[in-house]
Amino acid sequence: MLLFKLSERPYSLRSNLRLLVFVCVLPATLVSALLTYSTYQLRREQVEQQTVLLGQSVLADLERELASIESVLKVMATAPELTGGDMRGFYQRATNTLGTGLAYNYIVTDVQGRQLLNTLRPWGTPLPTTGTPPQLARVFTEQASVLTDLFVGPVARRQAVAMGVPVKVGERVVYSLNIGLDPARVQALLGQQHLPPGWLVAVLDSSGQIVGRSRDVQRYLGQPAVPELLAAMALRDSDTLLSETKDGVSVFTAYTTSKAWRWRVVVGAPRSVLLRDLLSHLGWVLGGILAAYGLGLWLARTISLRVLASVRELNDAAQALSHGEDVALPSIRLQEAEAVGAALVQASLAMKQVKFFAQHDALTELPNRLLFDEVAERNLAFAQRRGQRLAVVAVDLDGFKTVNDTQGHAAGDAVLREVAQRILLTIRASDIVARIGGDEFIVLLTDVHDTGAMDTAERIVAALSEPYPQVLAPVSASAGVALFPDHGTDIKTLALAADQALYRAKQTGKRRAVLA
């Protein structure tokens, strides 16, 4: 026994306290890192949202500008000189209106694209027979206003944009009245925007050429946008993405498209701003962690000195006892680690149980309505950002009351537990089912289309309509299906639509699924 005790390695109190300080600071370090990352993600989402809102604002200004030009052009297209074929008289009228600064020339072309009048040339001067943008041919084929992409004018010999409107005599389009627009007009619109430092706004025509840019416009005017942006615009009319500008700056990019003209406004926010914020935040976090670790070491040293002092007093008391002297034992109170650990485990288990039953149905252990709404709102927001579809399925049992009335509530509870298991086996792991009261259930189907939603609802009805063990009364189910965004854009509206569809399912014979 003595040899065994002599061979045991003694523990160092100071080393264990240092380890304890490290273990205590480590969770705070991990939490700080997680909070830093969450802060970065939140800030990134805010920046992306700002780019989207700024793009929409600039696009609204641009569309108002183009709408005012279109209105003036449509009024000019009804001029009696033009509709009566008096080109000389219309030349004089058009020349007089140029003083307003709306545009730098008016052009009249025929269906072959030949210029019949151009206010940049004196009346009677020969005009080019080619060079008219092919897009203006749509004025005759579609009898609608057309905004061209950027092109080099055959007369002005500089980059320009043209808007054309049909000139009608009766129901027939006889001419296209076009107005030449200087890209500087778009540039002036961008110059009115108040941009954060380093942000970039650009206007692209329908082919992706740069028509206006908040900086370095002369360098990039007429050039195509960067390939990753062009690829994204080919798939969606609006989106956010990470890309680089023409001058190689990494940015968070948002773009939006004009439905009327198919031009696009692109907004870029430099990633370096967020990285600087992240590094600054990390610096503060690291400084706080080091300060906490230093304070912990100081406290550990103080505690170890006090404990060692008590040990020395106990040793002195033991020596005094061995010598037959009077002993004055110090008063030392130490909380045992096992007791603390047991108390924490008990508290943790109790809190976990309270949280579980606050969010789940006690009978089926399915989520309750509160947890369902919370998770469903997050999935709905995700679906809106990704352009995905969702479905809400309201489910109600048919004949369940008979089970309670004839076999008692214990049998009814068994049926409800079986219903929960059957639904879970029918849906995907990414879908959500909740019991919202009595024999009513609600299911959220994520990333699903119309046919898939109805197929799943019908499988649920079929599964719940199978016989239940030791249940004599026939039990089946009815379901109502509502789709996002067809039947609503929020969970409350979708659930109401699903409930109404469920009511129709019950009214039309039960044991079926009905689409809202």
Fold blueprint:
Blueprint: H1 2-7, H2 13-77, H3 80-83, H4 87-97, E1 105-109, E2 115-118, H5 138-142, E3 146-147, E4 151-152, E5 159-169, E6 172-181, H6 183-191, E7 200-204, E8 210-213, H7 217-220, H8 227-235, E9 239-244, E10 250-257, E11 264-270, H9 271-322, H10 337-359, H11 369-386, E12 390-398, H12 400-407, H13 409-426, E13 432-437, E14 440-446, H14 450-464, E15 476-484, H15 491-507, E16 513-515
Parallel strand pairs: 15-16
Antiparallel strand pairs: 1-2, 1-6, 3-5, 4-5, 5-6, 7-8, 7-11, 9-10, 10-11, 12-14, 12-15, 13-14
Helix pairs in contact: 2-9, 12-13, 13-14
Brief digest:
With 516 residues, the chain is an alpha+beta fold.
Could you characterize the architecture of this molecule?
With 516 residues, the protein is of the alpha+beta class. The protein has 2 domains: 11-322, PAS domain (Beta-Lactamase); 356-515, Reverse transcriptase/Diguanylate cyclase domain (Alpha-Beta Plaits, 2-Layer Sandwich), CATH 3.30.70. It is 51% helix and 19% strand. The protein has 15 helices and 16 strands. Strands 1, 2, 3, 4, 5 and 6 form a 6-stranded antiparallel β-sheet that branches. The chain has a 5-stranded antiparallel β-sheet with strand order 8-7-11-10-9, sandwiched between helices. A hairpin with a 6-residue loop joins β10 (250-257) and β11 (264-270). α2 packs antiparallel against α9 (271-322), α12 (400-407) runs antiparallel to α13 and α13 runs antiparallel to α14.
